[in-house]
Write a structure and sequence with these properties.
Blueprint lengths: L2 E6 L3 H5 L1 H11 L2 E4 L3 H4 L4 E3 L2 E4 L1 H13 L6 E6 L1 H6 L1 H9 L3 E5 L10 E4 L2 H9 L3 E3 L5 H8 L6 E4 L7 H14 L3 E6 L4 H14 L3 E5 L10 H6 L4 H17 L6 E5 L5 H10 L4 E5 L2 H19 L4 H4 L5 H4 L3 H8 L1 H4 L4 H23 L18 H7 L9 H8 L2
Helix pairs in contact: 2-4, 2-19, 10-12, 13-19, 14-19
Length: about 400
């Protein structure tokens, strides 16, 4: 399926729902990205000379996907920010876990700073500071320790250091990863300044990056300020319209254009169709995080309520078992066999069912446009409803769409 979850990292939301996310993505044949700071946040991780040599959390996340992957479809991606690169996380994933796809990251999602999470343990906060993270307030300050132990505050903030991108070091890092054995190298960037978007496109072209993900404003699973996550930065339509312009310019010059993945507020099939169209033919995937996480969480909750015999009335009307509630369960059981199907967690069924709904809806949208394969979707499959939308996107205004063809028909 043409979907990618672009970076679910060290937050509790990701960790607590990983079974559903990994197994559901693997069953659907979609791409799942392990986000930043997973090794750095793993209290059981072992480091030697500043490099990771053992990690329980990353090992588990990778293996869950690999164990359920079907016929080579989809992929598990290991992402790295400044901290992960310093700790050698991607080299470890390639050499020790058999990971074939790695992703470099500029900023985090819709914001141009590093990853953030809340820490509720003094010992863990002190460990993370020793590993190089910025932890606020200082967990080694005696006055802060005293205040925390007295309950004056309940949580520390862990922040990643920011990255500064230069062409030479970027190209060098891509080459290092390829020599380490990475089969595919991705780049993810966010809703930053147009110059930074142009830099991402050009650098990805020069390095022949396999997939460039551009994430519009909105998103995030961590503790980032909501105004920043939802309202700052370049909005998705404007950002992705600029992205098309920059890629098209490189194409006209005969330069390499990487495959694109668009993210930023996508949840349903009509939005996915528009995303594939707005920067066609360069877009190959649509990135989503909040929708898949919600699907996995709801699936897990329904499974728990079934076991407790406490299904809400609005769910119970569909049935009282996993096979009755999840519309895809019967077919999946037939494909996997009863023994394997019984091991699929409800969270994975929730995500798998959500993806199947999106895929079927997308097929219907494509059928309506008479486009029977993804590569045939084009920019003229959509129209702008306002002059401003047309000016921003370069998509034809609805009153001017098909104008030349209309004149030919009427003049027959």
């Amino acid at each position: 399926m043409p979907f990618i979850i672009p970076g679910i990292g060290s937050t509790d939301v990701a960790k607590n729902n990983w079974d559903g996310l990994a197994i559901g993505s693997a069953l659907a044949g979609a791409i799942l990205t392990i986000g930043e700071n997973v090794c750095g946040m793993d209290e059981q991780a072992v480091f030697k000379n500043g490099k990771i040599v053992s990690t329980v959390d990353l090992d588990r996340r990778v293996k869950l996907f690999q164990d359920w992957q079907r016929d080579g479809y989809g992929a598990i991606v290991v992402q790295a920010n400044v901290e992960d690169t310093r700790l050698g996380v991607q080299e470890y994933a390639i050499s020790e876990l058999g990971v074939e796809v790695v992703e470099l990251k500029w900023g985090q999602g819709a914001k141009d700073i590093g990853g953030e999470v809340k820490i509720r343990s003094l010992e863990k906060a002190q460990t993370l500071k020793k590993r190089g993270y910025i932890v606020l307030p200082d967990p080694e300050n005696p006055a802060v320790i005293d205040a925390f132990q007295k309950g004056s505050f309940k949580e520390f903030e862990r922040h990643s250091r920011i990255g500064m991108v230069e062409l030479e070091s970027f190209l060098e890092r891509v080459e290092v990863l390829r020599k380490a054995g990475a089969k595919y190298v991705f780049l993810k960037t966010g809703a930053y300044r147009p110059a930074d978007l142009a830099r991402a496109v050009k650098f990805a072209s020069l390095a022949k990056i396999d997939l460039l993900t551009v994430d519009g404003a909105g998103g995030g699973t961590g503790m980032s300020p909501w105004r920043m996550m939802n309202e700052w930065g370049v909005p998705s339509v404007e950002l992705h319209s600029l992205l098309y312009q920059y890629c098209h310019k490189l194409k006209q010059k005969g330069e390499f254009v990487p495959d694109l993945s668009l993210a930023g507020g996508f949840t349903l099939e009509d939005q996915i169709f528009k995303g594939l169209a707005i920067a066609a033919p360069y877009v190959k995937l649509i990135g989503m995080a909040r929708g898949p996480i919600a699907a996995a969480m709801v699936g897990k909750t329904i499974g728990r309520r079934i076991n407790e015999d406490k299904l809400p009335v609005y769910v119970e009307r569909f049935g009282r078992s996993v096979e009755e509630v999840f519309v895809t369960a019967s077919d999946l059981k037939d494909e996997l066999g009863e023994e394997t199907f019984n091991k699929v967690p409800p969270g994975a069924l929730g995500l798998y069912t959500y993806y199947e709904r999106l895929a079927q809806g997308l097929r219907q949208m494509m059928c309506g446009s008479r486009k029977f394969a993804l590569e045939h979707i084009s920019r003229d499959d959509i129209a702008a409803l306002t002059r401003e939308a047309s000016d921003v996107s370069g998509i034809s205004y609805i009153m001017e769409t098909d104008q030349e063809e209309v004149e030919k028909i009427l003049d027959m």
